[in-house]
Amino acid sequence: PNPFIGVNAWGPNLNIARDPRWGRASEVPSECPFLAGKVGAAMVRGIQGDGEYVLTLAALKHVTAYSLESWRDDTEGPRNGTAHSRFGFDANISRHDLAEVYLEQFRIAIAEGVPLGMMCSYAAINGTASCESGALLTTWARSSQGFEGNVVTDGGALQMSSEPADLAESAAAALNAGVDLNCG
Q1: How far is CA 144 from CA 14, 92, 184, in A?
Q2: Which residue, 49, 53, 88, 158, has most beta carbons within 10 Å?
Q3: What sign results for the dihedral spanned by CA atoms 46, 49, 41, 24?
């Protein structure tokens, strides 16, 4: 049977809660990538079922570096007064932290839960919007991790990218990167 026909569930949310000011910590399993991955895999199996037929399509979200809702830097430093938001936020992450903190829970959930969906986030990672990142969606998720499901954008995520500013170009970049569906 075609696993892409039926009901989609956009979850589990496997982002890492490292700061209680995020405001969405109650939605995620843990601040530990290993524990979040194990819980996520179990949730995927529960959502999709263990039988011959898929009950509901589970979509891991939000891949990745999505743990910022809104924040204003009111310190006395050089960025005092700078406002940050999840919309178009560019997370500068080392390769080490990307692998161990921001992708590990998704790796575990893909390997052990075999989800049929994944949602890319609003965030950019090192200058590339996650929904336009072929390195993330095609190379890492599909080629390296064996993810075979569909990739959906977060609601309106194609409009959040700063480069390119044109929505048609953003949609083309997302399709080329491995996005299958636009939630927008």
Answers
A1: 19, 22, 28
A2: 158
A3: negative
42-59 per-position pLDDT tens digit: 999 999 997 788 888 999
Known catalytic residues are 154
Write out the two tokens for 29.
Answer: 């399993």
Instruction: Collect the ranges in the chain with pLDDT lower than 50.
Output: 70, 162
pLDDT of residue 23: 57
Distance CA 138, CA 132 (A): 10
Whole-angstrom distance, CA of residue 13 vs CA of residue 42: 13
Cα–Cα dist 151/48, whole Å: 16
Phi, psi of 125 (to 5 degrees): -120, 115
Residue type, 163: E
Instruction: Name the residue with tokens 């979850």.
Output: 11
